[in-house]
Amino acid sequence: MDKTVKLLVVILVCLFVVIGVIYALTSIGIIKIGYKITPSSTQAPTMTPNPINLDLGTIPSGSSGPKDFGKVGTLSLPVSYEITFTLDTSSASDFAYFTVYIYLYPSGSSYYSYSFLLTKSYPSDYETVSAGNYDIQVKIDYQAVSVTSDKTGTVNISVSYPG
User: Fold this and answer.
1) How much is the pTM?
2) DSSP type of residue 88
3) Tell me: the pLDDT tens digits for 49-100?
4) Which among 15, 18, 42, 135 could bridge 105 via Cys, Cβ 3.0 to 4.6 Å?
């Protein structure tokens, strides 16, 4: 029994050595080929106007409510893209809550095809949007914080695509 165990250990050691040599011989290095594919300017999405400037107006301290800005611009996509809307939460710090609803309507349609929901807790949303021209509609729900002196600011939402 002792000879069998010794023989088994010798066979396993030899097997590990052979595998190690084979691995060492086959794993000399790695070649990496980097690349970046960029769309031609005719394939890049466009948003008009850019930037889109909206005015919530003067808000009483601590007040809340909805605001429908209606159609605020257009988004043109020559090909399908993953479009991402991101709320800059630090720019919404004067609000206890700030929720943004963004709808993309195919031009001339009264029904939206894509919707995006942005909140301070979930500030980013994305969809793969088909090629076409879209009207952008923005609605918000908010509650302003209570203040003892005037505060002004701008809430920023970025629009992006991979590329």
Assistant:
1) 0.73
2) -
3) 888 888 888 888 888 999 999 999 999 999 898 989 898 888 888 889 889 9
4) 135
pLDDT at residue 32 tops 70: no
Listing DSSP states for 96-157 in one string gives EEEEEEEEEEETT-SS-SEEEEE-SSS-EEEEEEPSEEEEEEEEEEEEEPP-SS-------E
Distance of CA 97 to the CA centre of its chain: 20
Cα of 27 vs its chain's centroid, Å: 38
In this model, does residue 29 exceed pLDDT 70?
no
| DSSP per position, 37-87 | ----TTTS-EEESSS---------TT-EEEEEEEEEEEEEESS-EEEEEEE
Task: Give the H or E element holding residue 18.
Answer: helix 2-26
Sheet with 81-87: strands ordered across: 124-129, 81-87, 157-160
